[in-house]
Write a structure and sequence with these properties.
The chain has 113 residues and is of the alpha+beta class. The chain contains four helices and two strands, in the order H-E-E-H-H-H. It comes from Acutalibacter muris.
């Protein structure tokens, strides 16, 4: 599905731009999605929604443990152990939802700096 009209946005002082809602809707982009950027011409860049875990061989609980440990700078802290216990007690759909929210919240905090 293509967006029929060109939509303009202003690049902010920190180099940020909001991807228009109609573009996000057209490609199924949602909060927490990972996007890649590639230069495809002298004045053209491609923004693509990525699927980080296509054909992953890592089991979901192990992936969650790795995420939680990374969030705590790979320390074996009580907080990361507790987060792992909570997340592994959820259904796979709930795990996905919460991990996506954790990543989205983390990304927003990082970009606020």
């Amino acid at each position: 599905m293509e967006v029929e009209e060109k939509t303009l946005r202003i690049l902010g002082k920190r180099g940020r731009v909001t991807i228009p809602q109609e573009v996000r809707d057209a490609i199924g982009m949602a909060r927490g999605d990972v996007v890649s950027f590639a230069v495809v011409g002298d004045d053209c860049a491609q923004v693509k929604r990525e699927r980080i875990c296509d054909n992953c061989s890592t089991e979901p609980p192990q992936m969650i443990k790795l995420l939680v440990q990374a969030m705590h700078l790979a320390e074996n802290s009580p907080q990361s152990q507790r987060a792992f216990e909570v997340l592994t007690g959820l259904s796979p759909a709930q795990q996905y939802e919460y991990v996506a929210k954790i990543i989205a919240d983390w990304a927003e905090r990082v970009h606020e700096d």
